[in-house]
Amino acid sequence: MENTENPFAGVPVNNQAPASAAPQPVEAKKSHKKLIIILSSVGGFIILCAAAVLIWWFAYFDNDNALLSGAFNNLLTSKGGTTEANLKVTPTSASASGASMTLGVKGSGDKNATQADITLGVDAGGINFSLNGSIFYQANGDLYAKVSNLSTVASIVSALQAQQNGSALTDDENDAMVDYYTQLLSPINGKWIKVGASDLQEYLNASATGNTGVSDLQKCVTDVGTKISSDQSMRQNLLDALKNNGFLNAKRVGKDSNGVKYELTLNSSNASAFVKAVTATDVAKQLSSCAKSAGIDLSDFTTDTTDATDNSLKDTDISIYFWVDRGSRQARRAEINATTTGDEGAKIAFVLTSDYKAKSVTAPSGATDIEDVIKSLSGSTDDLVLTPQDNQSDSARQRDVYQVVAALTTYAANNMGYMPTSQSDFSGYLDAMNSTVSLNSGSATTGNILITTGQQCDGTLSSRSAKVEIMLTSGDIYCADAS
């Protein structure tokens, strides 16, 4: 048997046996090697891509600094959307003297116009009311406003009048005050009123001091807002001021359906550095220039704001949370809960949500111009039965009547229950008052109180009683009994 060397396989073969199938295993090995090389290359590429995605995810997409910076930029460059805010303030305890208040605002719009619907409820020291209103603002400076439930304003004024007098109004006084303001405000209750940009210039400008006025201030501030939206360096300048002074600190605390949740803490010891950093930004400088052109001096802003911030934080337990959507890098929700201490301690809860989806809104139709409203209100006061000044005078008259009643009661107690028969006997019991007093003679006028002894207001005769009368602005006689 003779052995020869196979030049392909490199192994001995038997010449007596068929060798036609011998090369096949060699070809199979080459095919597998190519497949392995291809799969290895593809797998390596996939692994590299996956690694790159993970690096991008953690270094950019899921990075807190990137998320927060992106949310800040999107907030400043937003072209509109729908935002809803709710504020609730309640006293910390039943003994606290603070007021309760609820405020709800839902706004929507785009770069051209914005509308906000507002609800307000207040309970403060006997003054309770609720108002519903809407505000529409156009980029050209025109403002529209509407307030419903204005009848409650009458009750507010009545309560304030009672506080001013130092005593509660009588039912008659209260009814007169409510009727007056109900009549006065009825033409504008629930109606849209337009205040044009030129009206703002006319009514609210500072031309008396030689300054440009509110309309120019409004335009200036709007221009600054436009610059912030388009100038990345201005936004970065402001962002650096907000985050590089140790006053604001954001910490990721979880995530839910609203996005990544952060807790924001405030360090009051760095309040001064924070305010100085913000006021040194281009944004603050330009806004300060706008205010100066309208006669508003912000030179003391830094000191005042620093002191106010520092003092308020010392007396307040506060927690702040906000959520950033990871995909869009938009701040979607914010919650603030705070508790203040002291006699007017209060619990404050604030929630804000936004979707950043611009929504077109149109100016209200059928709005009444502010000039027409002023003319209407000026004319309507001539037809009203009672003015606030008249009401104040009637209140004084009624107080004088009760002072006379108290004096008569004291006199009767000192004189076996009998009423005076002469004014000289009685005059020593009276303190100084606005009205004159006559006993059993003359008539009741708006400036004179008439005492009629032996008779009551309903006509009943009684030797130990007296009726005390005065005329009100309306011409009606106000009467009170003394016995």
Task: List the defining traits of the structure above.
483 residues; alpha+beta; twelve-stranded mixed beta sheet; four-stranded mixed beta sheet; 40% helix; elongated
Describe the fold and architecture.
With 483 residues, the protein is an alpha+beta fold. Among the domains are: 195 residues, no CATH class; 95 residues. Helices cover 40% and strands 29% of the residues. The protein has 13 helices and 18 strands. It has a twelve-stranded mixed sheet. Strands 15-16-17-18 form a four-stranded mixed sheet, with helices on one face. A two-stranded antiparallel ribbon has the order 1-2. β17 and β18 form a beta hairpin. The N terminus is likely disordered.
Backbone CA Rg: 40 Å
- Give the mean pLDDT: 74
Shape call: elongated
- DSSP helical segment count: 13
Oligomer: single chain
Ends distance: 156 Å
Strand content is 25-35%
State the helicity in percent bands: 40-55%
Largest sheet: 12 strands, mixed
- Provide the structure class: alpha+beta
What is the topology, as strand order, of the major beta sheet? Answer: 9-10-11-12-13-3-4-5-6-7-8-14
Spans of at least 5 consecutive residues whose pLDDT stays below 50 are: 1-22, 53-61, 206-213, 381-388
Query: How many β-strands, per DSSP?
Result: 18
Task: Provide a short characterization of the protein structure.
By secondary structure, this protein is an alpha+beta fold.
